[in-house]
Write a structure and sequence with these properties.
The chain starts with 6 loop residues before the first helix and ends in a 9-residue tail after the last helix. It is mostly helical. It folds into two domains: 208 residues, Up-down Bundle (Growth Hormone, Chain: A), CATH 1.20.1250; 193 residues, Up-down Bundle (Growth Hormone, Chain: A). Keywords: Membrane, Transmembrane, Transmembrane helix.
Length: 437
């Protein structure tokens, strides 16, 4: 019940907070401060389940391999752009709806349920259809999945900003990623150990398992004790969305953040091309397990470190993640260009994918924490929506350009993305600190 003390939860939270006063609260009301330990673990559990689900249906690994399995390899190039941009592009309109509600956790819960339904649709496509019909069914499910995720993205940052104080948000995200990654390591070993090529039935069961995780996460998030906050609007959602774009012109620090984030798309877009090069060298089924394991290990090994570091300086986390991402892309690209695509043997690309996944975790966690800390109230919702909408459009454009460039050379794509990441790192150096008061 709200307001009641839960000693074990408080003690565990105090251990994680690592302070004598575990209830230290920055930029949230006193009534919300009392509920921080309980809310911390509810949000943590929901995040763990969704991160586990994300890894089980990752477009970079599982869905890409699945497309080849059902006989629709030409659709692989659009998985990551659709997955990412579908949840970002409509967010200014979504945010206008969300802003009218004083309690916003229900948007996240409904979004989680929507993701579950869409994943069930993907499983049905794999089981009942074949060829490009199955592939298009997966893509359609991914579109719905991404739109539902847009509600979760807007609501999560706002609910977290209202329920979790500064200097605790980064470690919450880091712990969620670490635990989710660790669970995926165990699940990957269980599912792929001593197996040949996965069957269509295996893929369907994998998707149904992920769908179940989103249902449970939605129920847990509905239990978060969120106090009413600021509301705004009353105008038409599309009108408000267009008006919010003025932030890009009027708010210089925010504009700089959006530019930096756009340049750091390299860490997301480069990963599938590592997988493509590895497939050309070794297309055996167990290689899917290797890449999934690499992604899981990277998350579990690095996310808590990135989370704690982001609570000290999310700006420095962005810089370090960008430096790692650009370095590994340039190393892989130029190595493959000079020595040939089979450079380093079968394990070269999974190892590089592992390092890139660590870098991407840092970039992603750093920029999420930075965005939450740089604004408060309704401005936090507007920042999230405008940033994600702009990035979603740029992701589709960049994804299309890289897809076209890949027709000439996958290696050239990796090199270009590496240079893009280096530029993003330079831009991140000029970001102002926002973590500290």
């Amino acid at each position: 019940m709200p307001g009641q003390s839960n000693a074990p939860v408080d003690q565990l939270y105090a251990l994680i907070a690592n302070e004598e006063d575990a209830r230290v609260c920055k930029d949230i009301p006193e009534e919300a401060c009392r509920e921080v330990p309980r809310n911390f673990f509810l949000i943590l559990a929901a995040n763990v389940l969704t991160k586990l689900g994300d890894l089980l249906i990752s477009p970079k690994t599982v869905l890409a391999w699945m497309m080849s399995a059902v006989g629709a390899p030409a659709l692989v190039a659009w998985l990551v752009p659709i997955r990412e941009s579908g949840s970002m592009v409509p967010q200014m309109v979504i945010a206008a709806w969300v802003r009218r509600k004083a309690v916003r956790k229900w948007f996240w819960t409904l979004g989680s349920f929507g993701q579950s339904v869409s994943v069930v649709g993907m499983a049905a496509s794999v089981w009942f259809l074949e060829g490009y019909a199955a592939g298009l069914g997966i893509v359609a499910g991914l579109v719905v999945f991404s739109l539902a995720r847009g509600f979760c993205s807007v609501a999560m940052k706002d609910v977290q900003g209202k329920c979790i104080p500064k200097t605790r948000r980064g470690r919450l995200s880091g712990l969620a990623t670490t635990i989710g990654g660790s669970l995926t390591v165990a699940m990957t070993a269980l599912l792929f150990w001593d197996r040949g090529d996965p069957t269509l039935g295996f893929y369907s069961l994998l998707l149904l398992l992920a769908a179940t995780l989103w249902i449970i996460a939605g129920v847990l998030f509905a239990s978060v004790e969120e106090f009413p906050g600021e509301t705004g609007g009353g105008n038409n959602a599309m009108t408000e969305a267009i008006q919010s774009l003025s932030l890009l012109k009027d708010d210089a620090p925010f504009r700089h953040f959006v530019v930096t984030r756009a340049l750091l798309l390299c860490s997301a877009l480069a990963s599938p091309y590592f997988v493509v090069l590895a497939q050309k060298q070794s297309d055996v089924g167990w290689m899917l397990g290797v890449f999934l394991l690499a992604s899981s290990l990277a998350s579990s090994a690095s996310a808590s470190f990135w989370g704690w570091a982001a609570d000290t300086s999310s700006r420095r986390v962005i810089i370090r993640g960008a430096a790692m991402a650009s370095a590994v892309c340039l190393l892989v690209g130029f190595s493959a260009l000079i020595f040939g695509p089979d450079v380093g043997g079968a394990w070269f690309y999974p190892a590089a994918f592992f390092v890139l996944s660590i870098a991407h975790a840092g970039v992603r966690l750093g920029r999420k924490t930075y965005l939450v800390d740089m604004a408060g109230g309704n401005k936090r919702t507007d920042y999230t929506a405008v940033s994600n909408t702009v990035i979603g459009v740029l992701l589709l454009v960049t994804g299309g350009l890289t897809a076209a460039l890949s027709l000439i050379s996958d290696i050239a794509v990796i090199i270009v993305l590496g240079l893009m990441g280096f530029t993003g790192m330079v831009s991140a150096l000029r970001l102002k600190e926002v973590t500290e008061d």
